[in-house]
Amino acid sequence: MSLPARAEAEAMLCEAGGLNPGPWTAHSALVAQAAERIAAHLPGLDPEHAYIVGLLHDIGRRAGVTGMRHVYDGYRYLSDRGYDAAARVAMTHSFAYPDVAAIFGEWDCTPAELRCIEDYLAGTEFDGYDRLIQLCDSLAMAQGYVLMEKRMVDVLMRYGPTPLIVPKWRATFQIRDDIERALGRSVYSLLPGVVENTFGF
């Protein structure tokens, strides 16, 4: 499974930000940096790989202001270029709890596209990179790293609750706990500015 080189991935995000400007690009860069930092302390994960898939996890937003179809758009965009490892994470990053009903926002896909997403999730066993980006996505707001709870409430306030919000949050906390057990330390100890960004100091 292939990835673009780091410089190419950064150019792809820069181009995407020009097509659809917004805080999502700063968020993507922070997710990438967090993934690289954390992966450097996890056996079996390559920090460069983690950085690239983190940088491109939201690349589907290049297509414009959309809801959850950005996971499908990102998957297709990267798959069409042969970057299967990055395409995988573009698809999986929103599914700490792997149920399409657990998303925040709306499904603005066609029925066929939604079936494609459901089939992909059903046939995919999440690996360390999937879980790492699911975690880092929940730690990074556009202005910096925050406690997961702040990021979760921010998303909730923007999109409203869903019937599966509690299982999704539990699954995300479980990912954090599993990764921290492997690290032997808090993930927050590897990220700058968490206190300042969370509490506004």
Order of helices and strands: HHHHHHHEEHHH
Q: What's the pLDDT, averaged over the residues?
A: 95
Q: From the coordinates shown, what is the CATH architecture?
A: Orthogonal Bundle
Major sheet size, sense and barrel closure? 2 strands, antiparallel
CATH topology: Hypothetical protein af1432
**Radius of gyration of CA atoms, rounded to a whole number:** 16 Å
Q: Termini separation (Å)? A: 43 Å
Number of strands: 2
Q: Per the principal axes of the C-alpha atoms, what is the gross shape?
A: globular
Description:
Strand 1 and strand 2 form a beta hairpin. The model has no long low-confidence stretch (mean pLDDT 95). It is built from 10 helices and 2 strands, in the order αααααααββααα. 59% of the residues lie in helices and 2% in strands. The chain has one domain: Hypothetical protein af1432, CATH 1.10.3210. It has a two-stranded antiparallel sheet with strand order 1-2.
Give the helices and strands, then pairings:
Blueprint (H helix, E strand, L loop, with lengths): L5 H14 L4 H16 L7 H9 L13 H12 L3 H9 L18 H12 L5 H10 L2 E2 L2 E2 L2 H12 L5 H19 L10 H6 L2
Antiparallel strand pairs: 1-2
Helix pairs in contact: 1-3, 2-3, 2-7, 3-7, 4-5, 7-9
Question: In a few lines, what is going on in this structure?
Answer:
Helix content is about 60%, strand content about 0%.
Structure keywords:
201 residues, mainly alpha, Hypothetical protein af1432, two-stranded antiparallel sheet, 10 helices, globular
